[in-house]
Every structure is written in C-alpha cells, then in structure tokens.
Amino acid sequence: FFFFAKESSAQDIVTTQSEMPIANVTKTGDVGLGAILGTPTALNMKLWTAEATAVNVNLSYQQGDLAIMGDHLWHFRKAFSADPTVDTPAVFSPYLGVGLMAIMSTMGDTKSDRPLYRRTDNEEGVGVGGRIPFGVEFLPTGQRFGVFGEIAPGAIFSPTSFSFLQAGVGGRYYF
Question: Which member of 42, 124, 148, 160 lies 3.0 to 4.6 Å from 60 by CB, making a disulfide possible if both were Cys?
C-alpha cells in the first residue's frame, strides 16, 4: 500500500489508502488472459460476469494428460477494504468457487504415474470430477493486470475415484 503514495506523512498515507480508487471497479464484461504456475500449470482465462462473480477456465497439458477446468467464482471485493463503510472494493479480493474438470489422456496408454490423472492398467477414457477453488487476487490501482494465488481441493469421480489438492500462483492481463 505504501508504494502507491508519494512522499507524505503517515496521516496522508492512511487517508490515501481509504480514498484510493480501485482498478477495474466495474468488472462486468472484462476478460483476463494469463497463466497459473503450480499444480497444474495452465493457461488461464477469467470472464467477470458481474462486480463480484466470474467464470474461470484453465487449460493444462502435463505428461500426456489434457485437463480442462471451469469454475464459477464469488469474490468478496470489500473484505480487505480500509474503510468498510465506503462502497469501494479493496485492492486484494478473496474468492471462493465451485467447478468441474475433465481430464483425458492424449498418449493412448494407461500409466498410473501421471500427476493429473491416476489410472490403473484397465481404465481408459475421460476422467470427470469437481473442485473447490479459493484464493485471493491482487488488482492494483490503475493497472490492467491481476496477480492471484489459489488452492483447490477436489476429486475425480469417474472412471476411478481419488481426491487431490491443487495450488498455484498466476497472473492475468485484462482486456
């Protein structure tokens, strides 16, 4: 927060924080493209559908498996607001979501050592499951980019069942 203020007194900095305009306050229709690094590493697209809701899509390819994940996210844009009485979202925006995922092999074999999709020797086809992502996104004032970190526990339900934990950090450029 302090790097947004020029040379000034402590009182000026506090005043600047509470009155600071927020980048992309109205998110409706904004599209962000970027990447997430972690488990899995993926290309990422986010479409804000309203001020506090968004649809997030990840596309990942890792060791012969292609994964597509789609999440609906609810953002709590005023959770870290310096002044909760002001109707302005904060720079840090925590979120919680629910999503679906599909994972398929592109190699045509059945290996059990894949990080995205565990298979036994006789299981083939598309794996289907769900995930619950939660994290926080940093949307700096006056900028068209966002930086985020998230954790997403989940489970694959078919053709075999197992649970997993995904985590990563990433960034997006908003159009």
Answer: 42
Least confident of 17-26, 66-75, 81-90, 107-116: 17-26
Of the candidates 103, 97, 90, 82, the residue with the CA atom closest to the CA atom of residue 139: 90
* DSSP letter for each residue of 93-126: EEEEEEEEEEEEESSSS--TT-SS----TT--S-
* Beta bridge pairs of residue 71: 56, 99
8 Å CB contact between 35 and 44 = yes
**Amino acid in position 12:** D
How far apart CA 55 and CA 71 sit, in angstroms, is 6
Peptide bond into 40 cis (omega under 30): yes
Write the DSSP symbol of residue 4.
G
* Residues constituting the chain: 175
The C-alpha atoms of residue 25 and residue 35 are separated, in whole angstroms, by 22
